[in-house]
Amino acid sequence: MTHSYSVAVLPGDGIGPEVVGSALEVLDAAEQRFGFRTERSEFEAGAQHYLRTGELFDELAEKLRSQDAILFGSMGDPHVTPGILERGFILEMRQRFEQAANVRPVRLYPGVPSPITGLTPERCELVIVRENTEGAYVGRGSTVHAGTPNAVAMQESLNTRAGIERVVDFSFRLALGRRRKLTLCHKTNILVAAGQLWQEVVNDLARLYPEVEVDYVHVDAMCFHLPLTPERFDVVVTDNLFGDIITDLGAVIQGGLGVATSANLNLSGSAPSMFEAIHGSAPDIAGKGWANPSGAILSLALMLGHLGEGDAARAVEAATVQVLGELPALAGAEMGMSTSEVGARIAELVASGQA
Amino acid sequence: MTHSYSVAVLPGDGIGPEVVGSALEVLDAAEQRFGFRTERSEFEAGAQHYLRTGELFDELAEKLRSQDAILFGSMGDPHVTPGILERGFILEMRQRFEQAANVRPVRLYPGVPSPITGLTPERCELVIVRENTEGAYVGRGSTVHAGTPNAVAMQESLNTRAGIERVVDFSFRLALGRRRKLTLCHKTNILVAAGQLWQEVVNDLARLYPEVEVDYVHVDAMCFHLPLTPERFDVVVTDNLFGDIITDLGAVIQGGLGVATSANLNLSGSAPSMFEAIHGSAPDIAGKGWANPSGAILSLALMLGHLGEGDAARAVEAATVQVLGELPALAGAEMGMSTSEVGARIAELVASGQA
Ligand SMILES: CC(C)[C@H](C(=O)O)[C@@H](O)C(=O)O
Ligand SMILES: CC(C)[C@H](C(=O)O)[C@@H](O)C(=O)O
Fold it and tell me: How much is the pTM?
């Protein structure tokens, strides 16, 4: 029996189409070798599309909902007012599709230089799980006396037991299959209401996972521990806003946005999960072949793992890691190969069974 | 005429008394050489004091209010429930004494190793100004259905035009005397209400400081730019919570908590400003002579500058930087000198006019 999966492909803006193109070439190779199939539907979305049509997530939602997974390039263009795509597309998808967990592996791959002196791959192998649907990202607030010297802006962070529970439970299960350590990252000494609820959920669920060691680190202290002692962490779970911040720090440590990747997981099966590289649309280098497709290809590996094609996922990741180690630089003219050459090389390693 | 200043000294817990002791020895030397005087009053405060007496900031407030400045060691002890001292003392002082600006220089001193590969002192010379009295640090929120599966916690961030304005105006003035660049760090695309108010204040005040170039960086992107391209920044202004996070990242870059220092400035003269190293009380190494007093001594330099003793401030800073460059390690048994030897050496350089 051949498994077949429906995959929505959203190349987006800037370098998005290039890196997604490479990812699809690698997907072809994986299908051939591992004997599964994907039915791909490509959708226009992003800044260019919005400028042409005014359409954001709303118009796409129903078409995407029936898909097994979404492979996402990148979005953004200086001509679109900041906030429009973020709130109208990215957050809208995360919230409407209940992509409750934003999962970002922080791994230093062999041969990829970290800006942190002396950091080695063995010491840097963790996953950050970010709550992806609530907290400060509800984006609600109110302003009184706007435009006057007495203006006051109140910004809200809404945290529900249900929302926290699903992402913490997922994190415990993830830790069970790894080094069995879960660290909560928050600022419970200051954000008392939200912090208490987070800590309470972690404490309650810890009883169900006695094999998992539980730890806590303040978000400010995380800025120390993550770069200097990443070996301290296995799975880190945190709220939406803190997750946004510390995952970018994680990407720095592992050698930059070019190699960082993420999954936006729907944990209940009610809607598709979404997989994307972490880098932006980089309009300045679009079309030059300077973009590193590794982030996008690693997001493909996460997608394959999620769909249940574990062998294919591992092969794609291994091939990417091998090629990353061969590149003289991680992006730009100095990368030594073009975007499509990197993709082709990874596809070749996957197809030939060398990885 | 001899200037005389009243200084409240709060050594606090753990290594606080040791490092403050060294700072006072350096202050003696500075007074001798530069011909000013301080009248010092020492106050017990911190975890030990709280455990003995139950007293927090409230009991000290009126005694401290009349002082010209406060020199602060560090606070904290595992026996005190997290949150008590933070909210009952530190935040209470910042808010009641209207210490509106938390100023943290991020400088890589020559001879101090940064964990960031290839970072040089010339590229790392910036100041982060953190709003210090409001935002998420109002610590207010509410929880409904606590203890049930339907629990919801709402956490508030309160931002006033007046509170933002005073710290942004201070930052513009600071930038005028430096490289004339001000960067706002926020997350305006998500935290819309608070973000709009911050951006509005920066835009409005920018008109009064046309010589200052204004820039904006999202807090997540700051995790990239701060370690990798700190030369991009001169003065960074940000809100209370983001400031808490990115100043710790700043401390990492400049070589760690041992050399990082901060001023909590009252900008109106209504109450004293407070000066402290950034490190905690480190109870595990207290009394061993392993603590580096440089952070505390650099906070003394900030205090002297604030009191108007600019020559003394510069001499104390220069002497500290010189000795920092001589230490084989920044703390611990490998520091090569004890806490008091480091202090004595810095004091000697100040007294002898060699720095
Ligand atoms: C684009 C933006 C809305 C988004 C976020 O803030 O979550 C991004 O920074 C991320 O981390 O995926
Ligand atoms: C101790 C704590 C309340 C404090 C804060 O969160 O502001 C500390 O982290 C700091 O940065 O000064």
Answer: 0.96
